[in-house]
Amino acid sequence: MLLILDEIGLMDSKKIGDAIYMLANGMGKTRANIHGAARKTQIWRVLAARAFSFAETAPHCNYISHTLRKVAKPLMPVRHALPNYNALTNHLKEATGRYYGSPMLTFIESLMEEDAIKRQFDIELEKAKEDHLPVGAEGQDYRVFDIFFTFGFAGELATKYGITGGQIGEAMNAALRCFNDWIKDKGGFGNQEEKQWLAQIRSYLETYAHIRFQRIANHKTFDNTFFGERAGYVESRTDTDGILEDVYYIFPEYFKNIIAKGIPLKAVTRLLVNFGIMEPGNDKDRVTAYPYINGKRQRMYVINSKIFEA
Predict the structure, then answer these.
(1) Do residues 41 and 28 lie in contact, with contact meaning Cβ atoms separated by under 8 Å?
(2) 3-class secondary-structure state, position 264
(3) 94, exposed or middle or buried, with CB in 10 Å at 0-12, 13-18, 19+?
(4) pLDDT by residue for the chain (310 residues), tens digit each?
(5) CA dihedral 166, 167, 168, 172 (to 10 degrees)
(6) Per-domain residue ranges for the chain?
(7) What whole-number distance in Å separates Cα of residue 245 and Cα of residue 16?
(8) Cα separation of 306 and 8, whole Å?
(9) Cα–Cα separations (whole angstroms), residue 53 to 20, 142, 211
(10) d(Cα 32, Cα 23) in Å, to the nearest integer?
């Protein structure tokens, strides 16, 4: 069934996040009764929808993981052929005053008479993935596609059963359009968390490269004077194409606690190494290096200028 969540912008951000996880998991908390025994756990299956975007910067909200569990699309007028939001609201009020429950009961009764519906669903889902998910789509994209395809598939069945009064193909087309809009809103196919990690590191270097990295040449500082907060060293070198680039030697604790704050360290360093952005040495963790700086080996994270590429 459909669950409309309204005015949750007034909620505490942590409670919003907890509610989203609970709704998506379909199971309430396990509690004890007055005798100390476990109460019967409440379970449900709902489509949670929202007509707005809650604060993405809320301190307790992992926005990416929440949006995967509670996929949101604004109810734009173009999607429902009504002139404005007020017309949509009035339409919904009038419709829900006349229809509440009976269409779903008819849907379930009709569905139970379908012997091969599960196999049909699986076949059509795989075919739709081949048609609509390109090379480069990540697990996040596949999971959300499954959600929208399920909505469209159910809508097509409801039309087939004579419940919606619509035309065959309308429900699936609407669901796929919403999926494509979701992809566009999140910035395209691919792992959005990894994109945010790279953007955070890139932004730090773009902002502080000239004031928090002491410049060196031939692995030596020009002098020992450095004022302010130091994140590491920066050195110019010629890359394999003969182009001059800067390479950054970053103190490991500074990288962990400042530059990559809030990011899983092992995951982001592995990502940087795989993209050729971080240059590891031969040590056992395979991500740090030990360059000579001022005559001493120092354990550092080494990041090259590929971090600034698209």
Answers:
(1) yes
(2) coil
(3) exposed
(4) 667 766 767 777 777 777 777 877 788 887 777 777 888 888 887 765 543 344 343 444 444 444 544 455 555 545 567 888 788 888 888 988 887 778 888 999 999 999 899 999 999 999 999 999 998 788 888 988 998 999 899 999 999 999 988 899 999 999 999 889 888 877 788 777 888 899 999 999 999 998 999 999 888 887 666 677 899 999 999 877 788 899 999 999 999 999 999 999 999 999 999 999 999 987 666 889 999 998 899 999 999 999 998 6
(5) -60
(6) 106-190, 193-308
(7) 45
(8) 41
(9) 13, 22, 37
(10) 21
State how far the Cα of 219 lies from the Cα of 238, in Å rounded to an integer: 14
* Amino acid occupying residue 256: K
Indicate the helix (H) or strand (E) that contains 44: none
For residue 181, the one-letter residue type is D
Written as one string, the DSSP assignment of 127-174 is: HHHHHH--TT--HHHHHHHHHHHHHHHHHHHHHHTTSS---TTHHHHH
Kindly report the pTM of this predicted structure: 0.59
Q: How far apart are CA 146 and CA 23, in angstroms?
A: 17
Q: Which of 244, 250, 274, 236 is nearest to 201 (CA)?
A: 250
What are the structure tokens assigned to 115, written together? 């012997």
